[in-house]
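Anyone up for a design puzzle?
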């Protein structure tokens, strides 16, 4: 039997063997999910085999625009993040918490009997590893642990892929210190390298669990030149970021800007559709819905993902505390980039750029922060006024 692969080992795996990673995960009882094309969209879905990946595809992303296009090679991971994030698997957007049935004058509570899926996340980017770490703080590290999230998170296998080549359009992970290279939180991390007709992965072993999967797949030790070649693929990406965000003193900037006129300007463009929050991998707002059947014999309590852009979300006895589009956009961005730091000790933004790409009117938070910063000196701070 081959000796176990040490954590931190760098190995080379030919691209043709990627399928064997999926097969090894399946043998170990994992359900592989990862990027795939469905109805012309890049989504995360079931991966039965390597052919389900968007092989040979990439995309152009800009504020309010996303276009899939062909690459001139057969890269397995030659694209960045699409509109979906992994939170849909770890924090299901619609989840039954309990059911109750009437029993005479009483009722019986029935906890949902569900088998927790054992996911293997394939192709997780560094920014999204940071997003998971942010959600870990929210769901696992506070006073109340969320059992739904915990059960899924603890057993998930994570195969990360380092971003390489050209920039991902709207992302700014370098500014946020969240990418493009995965540095923690993975079982295996791959860098895809396609030099002059060759096609291979540099694989970094992150955990013993990852080593156990890779053990079943043909591989060899990486030469120093191959490690350098993979590093330069990632470095090229870091040098080609689509966006930048100056985070210096950002919390204080937002706290000073509560009454800044820029909020009116952005509110005039914002549709309050909530897309920016639906696609954000760190947003965790949710609401509770109670429903009954028509006979009144069965009642259910569901948890449903919600967003801070609806008037109802901030309805507190007698009315909403954020009645205007201005107050809702300001709340969202101030929470992401400022109050999150006080609340959780980290930024609520990991720089994936999804909110920029999927905003139908192309509102770009990096531009909004720049506008606040550029005019901060001319804006005279006032006491908090109308919401
Ligand atoms: S705020 Fe935008 S860029 Fe930041 S993590 Fe959320 S979706 Fe990504
Ligand atoms: S910023 Fe864009 S995505 Fe977000 S609510 Fe406004 S219009 Fe929708």
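Challenge accepted. My sequence:
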């Amino acid at each position: 039997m081959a000796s176990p692969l040490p954590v931190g080992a760098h190995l080379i795996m030919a691209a043709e063997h990627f399928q064997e990673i999926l097969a090894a995960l399946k043998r170990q009882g994992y359900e592989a999910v990862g990027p795939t094309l469905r109805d012309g969209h890049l989504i995360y879905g079931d991966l039965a085999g390597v052919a389900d990946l968007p092989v040979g595809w990439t995309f152009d992303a800009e504020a309010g625009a996303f276009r899939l296009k062909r690459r001139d090679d057969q890269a397995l991971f030659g694209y960045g993040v699409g509109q979906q994030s992994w939170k849909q698997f770890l924090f299901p957007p619609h989840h039954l918490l309990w059911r109750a049935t009437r029993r005479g004058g009483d009722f019986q509570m029935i906890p949902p009997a569900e088998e927790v899926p054992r996911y293997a996340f394939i192709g997780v980017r560094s920014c999204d590893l940071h997003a998971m770490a942010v959600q870990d703080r929210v769901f696992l590290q506070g006073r109340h642990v969320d059992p739904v999230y915990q059960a899924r998170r603890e057993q998930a296998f994570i195969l990360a892929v380092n971003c390489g080549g050209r920039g991902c359009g709207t992302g700014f992970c370098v500014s946020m210190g969240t990418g493009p290279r995965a540095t923690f939180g993975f079982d295996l991390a791959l860098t895809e390298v396609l030099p002059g007709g060759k096609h291979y992965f540099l694989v970094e072993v992150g955990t013993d669990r990852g080593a156990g999967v890779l053990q079943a797949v043909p591989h060899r030790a990486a030469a120093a030149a191959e490690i350098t070649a993979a590093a330069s693929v990632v470095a090229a990406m870091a040098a080609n970021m689509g966006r930048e965000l100056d985070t210096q003193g950002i919390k204080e900037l937002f706290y000073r800007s509560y009454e800044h006129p820029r909020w009116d300007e952005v509110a005039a463009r914002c549709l309050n559709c909530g897309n920016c929050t639906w696609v954000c991998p760190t947003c965790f707002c949710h609401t509770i819905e109670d429903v009954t059947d028509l006979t009144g014999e069965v009642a259910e309590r569901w948890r449903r993902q919600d967003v801070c852009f609806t008037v109802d979300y901030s309805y507190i006895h007698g009315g909403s505390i954020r009645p205007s589009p201005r107050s809702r956009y300001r709340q969202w961005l101030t929470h992401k980039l400022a109050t999150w730091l006080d609340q959780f000790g980290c930024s609520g933004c990991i720089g994936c750029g999804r909110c920029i790409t999927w905003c139908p009117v192309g509102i770009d938070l990096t531009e909004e922060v720049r506008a606040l910063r550029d005019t901060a000196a001319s804006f005279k701070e006032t006491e908090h006024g109308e919401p």
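A detail worth pointing out: Residues 5 and 215 are 7 Å apart (CA to CA).
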